Amino acid sequence: MGEKPWFWATLTLSSITIVSVVFAAWELLEYRFFRDANYLTLHYLYISRGFAMSLVLAFWAAWFVLRQRRKSEEDLRRSNERYRGLLEDFPGGIILYDRDLRVIEWNGSAERMFGYSKEEICGRALPTIPAGKIDELKELMGKVESGAAVLDIETLRVGRTGEPFPVQLSIRPFREAEEPVYFLEATSDIRERVRWREAMIELEKLASMGKMAAGTAHHLNSPLAALLLRIQLMREEAPGNTNLASIEDGLRFCRQFVQRLLEFARMSPVDKRNHDVADMIDSVTNFFLPVIRSKQATLTTNTAPVKGLEVFADRNLFETVMLILLSNALDAMPAGGEIQVSCRAIPPSRVEIAVRDSGSGIDPANLARVFEPFFTTKEPGKGTGLGLAIARNFAVEHGGSIRLESEPAKGATAYIDLPLAAGIAEGAAR
Q: What is the distance between the alpha carbons of residues 100 and 104, in angstroms, rounded to a whole number?
């Protein structure tokens, strides 16, 4: 807008200058050589002067206008390249389409997001709208035409694979002179954001569940203990009463469930110290051995490879986790099965503990969920679904990890990986 006055001012001033120079030069020439010329000669001189002046002005104006046009075209080309680069490098998908959803513009981010190239999609109907979202998009387009803002709307889109995924989009009107209104859509892939949001919601649920579990467990623990004691006394008075035996089993399960809730929602501070790995494992297996023998199962323990190696851990929690893994292994086996506990050092500063059983294994469909709180593959009343969740919390709190490998009908193996105390000290020193 500011260049037009400058252009005409420059052209006018330069033209006046040229006219002045040509006029002055012609006057000098006339005075020098044609001072005594007759009327006819002077007439032709005046005509030739006007013709020469017009010719010079025409050439000058043409050159000036063409130069300015080339400069404008070059500026326009550079501007187009600049804005095209910005459009292509924009992190979100930029899509321009008309009322019939026919694609007019499609940037590089949209190509990467949806899997369609610009050449194959421009001029076609927009293929990224799921069948159930077309009415929603039409409604948003109506809002845009009415002047309402459509910003940061979360919805679904589909790519070339046909699988819907969450996106966040904004739509604005785009007009060109006499052309009908177009719709400019900026779309961002928010799959990662949604995944983290769901994870945070899950953490909030677990935190709330932990607080609720702690309060519930404290309130239930004493009444359950009193009821269990009364039932035991009643059974001593009537040893053949099977109903009392069933009630006692139910109360024991309730107490076990409450205890697991307390462990899962543990509020007390962790007491971490250096402990010998082999010593802790041997202590737990010796304690649990009578239970294993009562089911005619066998237990093989090999802690020699980690003898003398220490981990920085809460001994009570470590032993609780080992009891959970041994109990799960025993529950998964028929009478006469075998449990193996083995250890190995992983250079340079970690240790791995494996608990194997010869049970029925875990269905692959359930393997990904076994560490979720309250998820269990056991029969109703046989498990709380908190054991492996407690084990996972322990491993994470102690800088380690836990995983479960299994094949149906071939048993399962739980692996706990923990850092050695020496490795922790070296890391802290660095």
A: 11
Distance of CA 161 to the CA centre of its chain: 19
| 70-96: b (≥16 Cβ within 10 Å) or e | eeeeeeeeeeeeeeeeeeeeeebbbbb
> What are 56's two structure tokens?
């010079």
Listed in sequence order, the residues at least 6 apart from 184 whose beta carbon sits closer than 8 Å to its beta carbon are: 94, 95, 96, 171, 172, 173, 174
In whole angstroms, what is the distance from residue 233 CA to residue 354 CA? 42
User: In terms of Cα–Cα distance, which of 103, 104, 97 is closest to 140?
Assistant: 97
DSSP 8-state symbol, 379: P
- Paired residues of 96 in beta bridges: 105, 184
What is the CA angle 207-209-210, rounded to 5? 65
Q: Is the pLDDT of residue 303 over 90?
A: yes
* Rounded Cα gap, residues 309 and 420, in angstroms: 7
Cα(179)–Cα(150) distance, integer angstroms = 22
Write down how long the chain is: 430
**Strand 412-419 and strand 164-174: pairing?**
unpaired
Q: Kindly calculate the radius of gyration of the chain based on its CA atoms and give it in whole angstroms.
A: 43
Task: Identify the sign of the CA torsion 16, 21, 22, 26.
Answer: positive
Q: What is the pLDDT of residues 197-232, one digit of tens each?
A: 776 666 666 666 666 666 666 667 667 777 777 777
Find the Cα–Cα–Cα–Cα dihedral 384, 389, 393, 395, rounded to 10°: 120
The H or E element that residue 30 is part of is: helix 3-33
Distances (CA, A) of 135 to 103, 139, 190: 18, 6, 22
Neighbours of 184 (CB within 10 A): 16
CA dist., res. 66 & res. 52, Å (int): 21
Tens-digit pLDDT profile for residues 274-291? 999 999 999 888 878 878
**pTM check: above 0.70:** no
Each domain of the chain, given as residue ranges in start order, spans: 3-88, 91-189, 196-264, 272-429
Q: Which CATH class is domain 91-189?
A: alpha beta
> Are residues 387 and 260 in contact, defined by beta-carbon separation less than 8 angstroms?
yes
What's the token pair of residue 27? 């006057």
What is the CATH number that goes with domain 272-429?
Answer: 3.30.565.10
